[in-house]
Design a protein that fits this description.
47% helix; elongated; DNA Binding (I), subunit A; two-stranded antiparallel sheet; 2 domains; alpha+beta; single chain
Length: 185
């Protein structure tokens, strides 16, 4: 069992020689782990940062000023690429935020929207029966529609969401489904 233990050089405590207790050090240590335990390494880093904070801020400000345009270009490209890959997650997060502002409750994820798209088999929920101008398929894009609108107290949960073609969603707007279908209640 002694092979599985490692002694921290700072505190002297013997701990299991795993990445749970020691940071990795593939270049300088035989066993691939640093000689200080994670707790001691964290304390050492915090102490250094506290002692050298002003120096660190000056160094960072100098670097940022010298590389401002590089950083902006890098952040713009990285941000655009990330948004393109995670567009559905951003949109779900924005709908959840809007529902919180209304105080309606209910949340959904991008996975809930993908599941709804599969349930609807790629077709507009409202279809040509209600809107004669309906595109019917959602190949060119879709809008997430709240069956009972948020302004009328509808939930933002998956049970109140359907996917509609942009034409149907714009025409329905914030109407109740029966009102939009022309049925008086």
């Amino acid at each position: 069992m002694s092979d599985a233990l490692k002694r921290c050089t700072s505190c002297g405590e013997e701990l299991p020689a795993t990445e749970e207790f020691f940071h990795r050090d593939r270049h300088h240590a035989r066993d691939g782990l640093r000689c200080q335990c994670k707790d001691c390494a964290t304390a050492r880093t915090k102490k250094w940062q506290a002692e050298h904070y002003a120096e660190y801020r000056v160094r960072k400000a100098t670097y940022d000023a010298a590389h401002r345009e590089e950083r902006r270009a890098y952040d713009a490209v990285r941000g655009a690429a990330y948004y393109a890959e995670h567009r559905a997650e951003y949109r779900a997060r924005n709908r959840n935020r809007r529902a919180r502002l209304y105080g309606n409750g209910g949340t959904h994820t991008a996975a809930d929207i993908r599941a709804q798209l599969a349930r609807q088999r790629g077709r507009c929920f409202w279809g040509p029966t209600i809107n004669p101008d309906c595109a019917r398929t959602l190949k060119k894009g879709y809008h997430v529609d709240h069956v009972i609108p948020l302004v009328d107290g509808g939930s933002n949960g998956p049970e109140n969401l359907v996917l509609a073609c942009p034409s149907c969603n714009r025409k329905k707007s914030v109407k109740h489904p029966m009102e939009w279908a022309g049925v008086l209640f």
